[in-house]
Task: inverse folding
């Protein structure tokens, strides 16, 4: 009897949650009638008495009204007094899209008479730890933004069970977007989140500094030799005081930047047999090229600290002519006087660059699952994705919007904005590099001596490979 009772309550609550969610999310709009009672009874395997009880509860909530002889109709909000459900949305503090998200929320609330969105900004440092703790304590957001790096952190913490895997049916990989963007948020063959935005790593260059150096075409930067040649021409001591006023390039040691050179040289971090092989010749050669940019050729400022944004900061100050960057950071240039543009990264032995992205996750313990799913649907729908494109440089995950040139604004977007389309076929998610977030952090820490030119790439890579492989072997011996 207990089992039968539990089964009934599950079906009863499922029906109530589904119907309430469809009303609150706007799937059933004000003044529309819901399905007849007998249809609902067959669909949810509930008696008509149970169906009527749920409908009576929704009448008491002010969501529907019973029309004699016609059925049950969703009530149109009157004077702003209709019942409204609040979706809690979390976003990390360093996101360039926060102001645009606020605008999207306003548009969503205007279109949804029964739903509000409460936006919480959480510091980027410790974002995933804070998020998982809130969810585990029962006070987590219904929906949250997660970068691909933060998603890998979730995997490392083994917290994916806190996610309600959801892929909006209005955003399918082949038909509506780019399949590689979806790979950023896959785990064991399952799509855990719906992609919201993305960016490949590209070269940003200052057109004024190129002109000053007599360079007319950035399209000539096809390989490392051409990159170095251009960087040398742009590196200048303008006042003869033996100090460089403009560098041609600024190298970044960020794990979201330097592996681009490795991919261009057919390097790798992990072999086919799942061993760290960062000490392979192609990767070592790529790292040596990075060091040479700073120490031998002196076309890049010498790396001296752990800031991931040294290159971007100097670019904004017009002290460097070229950097590796993303469409995210281009939002810094909105309204700026800098004359800048973008181009693909050069190739060496192959074409290659990194692909970054952000996805929308749903709290598995959310009491508003249907409403949360509906909000995610809206965020990747045409209206929200259009706002994302019109207000910033970040590339929307919806292909139709990402490639709509009518939305480009020369005050916001670079002339070569669409270069991402030719890059996508060879852009690789960091997950494909086969290192965990913890291992990438370990590798980054262990590279410090190399970046300061105290240790050569071969020795550094051998030491890093040994450390990561010892860690993997130890973990393999632990009980599962």
Result:
């Amino acid at each position: 009897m207990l089992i039968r009772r539990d089964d009934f309550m599950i079906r009863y609550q499922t029906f109530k949650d589904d119907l309430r969610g469809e009303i609150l999310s706007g799937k059933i709009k004000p003044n529309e009638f819901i399905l007849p009672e007998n249809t609902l009874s067959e669909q949810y395997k509930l008696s008509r008495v149970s169906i009527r009880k749920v409908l009576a509860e929704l009448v008491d909530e002010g969501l529907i009204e019973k029309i004699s002889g016609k059925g049950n109709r969703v009530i149109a909000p009157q004077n702003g007094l209709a019942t409204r459900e609040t979706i809690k949305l979390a976003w990390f503090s360093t996101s360039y899209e926060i102001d645009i998200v606020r605008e999207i929320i306003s548009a969503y609330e205007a279109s949804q008479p029964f739903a509000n969105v409460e936006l919480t900004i959480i510091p980027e440092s410790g974002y995933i730890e804070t998020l998982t703790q809130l969810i585990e304590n029962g006070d987590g957001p219904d929906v949250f933004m997660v970068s691909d790096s933060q998603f890998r952190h979730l995997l490392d913490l083994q917290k994916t069970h806190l996610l309600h895997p959801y892929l909006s049916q209005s955003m399918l990989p082949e038909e509506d977007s780019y399949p590689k963007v979806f790979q950023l948020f896959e785990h064991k063959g399952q799509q855990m989140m719906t992609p919201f935005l993305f960016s490949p790593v590209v070269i940003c260059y200052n057109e004024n500094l190129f002109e000053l150096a007599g360079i007319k075409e950035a399209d000539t930067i096809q390989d490392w030799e051409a990159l170095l040649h251009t960087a040398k021409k742009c590196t200048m001591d303008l006042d003869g005081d033996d100090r460089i006023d403009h560098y041609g390039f600024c190298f970044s040691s960020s794990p979201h930047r330097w592996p681009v050179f490795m991919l261009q040289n057919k390097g790798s971090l992990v072999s086919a047999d799942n061993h760290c092989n960062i000490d392979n010749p192609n990767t070592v050669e790529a790292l040596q090229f990075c060091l040479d940019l700073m120490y031998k050729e002196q076309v890049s400022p010498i790396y001296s600290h752990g800031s991931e944004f040294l290159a971007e900061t100097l670019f904004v100050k017009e002290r460097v002519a070229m950097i590796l960057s993303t469409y995210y950071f281009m939002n810094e240039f909105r309204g700026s006087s800098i004359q800048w543009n973008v181009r693909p990264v050069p190739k060496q032995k192959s074409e290659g660059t990194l692909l970054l992205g952000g996805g929308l996750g749903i709290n598995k313990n959310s009491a508003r699952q249907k409403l949360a799913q509906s909000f995610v649907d809206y965020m990747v729908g045409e209206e929200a994705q259009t706002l994302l494109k019109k207000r910033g440089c970040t590339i929307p995950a919806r292909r139709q919007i990402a490639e709509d040139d009518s939305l480009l604004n020369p005050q916001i977007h670079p002339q070569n904005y669409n270069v991402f389309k030719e890059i996508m076929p060879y852009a690789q998610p960091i997950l494909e590099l086969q290192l965990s977030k913890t291992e990438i952090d370990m590798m980054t820490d262990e590279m410090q001596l190399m970046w300061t030119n105290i240790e050569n790439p071969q020795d550094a890579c051998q030491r890093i490979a040994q450390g990561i492989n010892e860690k993997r072997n130890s973990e393999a011996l632990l009980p599962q």
